[in-house]
Write a structure and sequence with these properties.
alpha+beta; two-stranded antiparallel ribbon; 3 helices
């Protein structure tokens, strides 16, 4: 099945995580994009990961069309975990506005979370030199 997803962190191809490589193998097309909301960096013992939350601002990522099986989509949902919910987002690209599914953070952020003012997780990691979380929830 074809799914259009908004990706903004560890699933983006240039994140170079195992799950990003899993996603990249299934990409049919992709465009730079942004979606409404704020972006938080969430710390874990093995690195940082992003969380899109409601709020004023834009989160930078990619709009990706993927060829996924039902099992692939379940694997992505499991990777994201219970803290996220996959919902429909209004995403903006150079070609206009469209709808895509994306994962949003649904639990209160920890005190250690950091607001990423630029809305760009990969640029924030590069600027801070902090590590990306490469595996999550057994995937």
């Amino acid at each position: 099945m074809r799914k259009t997803l908004f990706l903004y962190g560890t699933l983006m191809s240039h994140a170079d995580t195992p799950m990003a490589r899993f996603v990249q193998e299934r990409v049919v097309s992709s465009l730079e994009a942004d979606a409404p909301g704020k972006l938080l960096a969430i710390p874990s013992a093995k690195g940082w990961f992003p969380a899109l939350v409601p709020g004023q601002g834009r989160v930078k990522g990619v709009l990706a069309e993927l060829d996924l099986t039902r099992a692939d989509l379940m694997k992505l949902d499991r990777y994201e975990g219970r803290e996220y919910r996959r919902i429909v987002l209004r995403v903006r690209t150079s070609e206009g506005v469209s709808s895509a599914q994306g994962w949003v953070w649904t639990v209160p952020p920890s005190e250690e979370s950091v607001l990423i003012e630029s809305g760009d997780f990969m640029a924030w990691l590069k600027k801070t030199g902090l590590p990306i979380l490469s595996q999550r929830n057994g995937t």
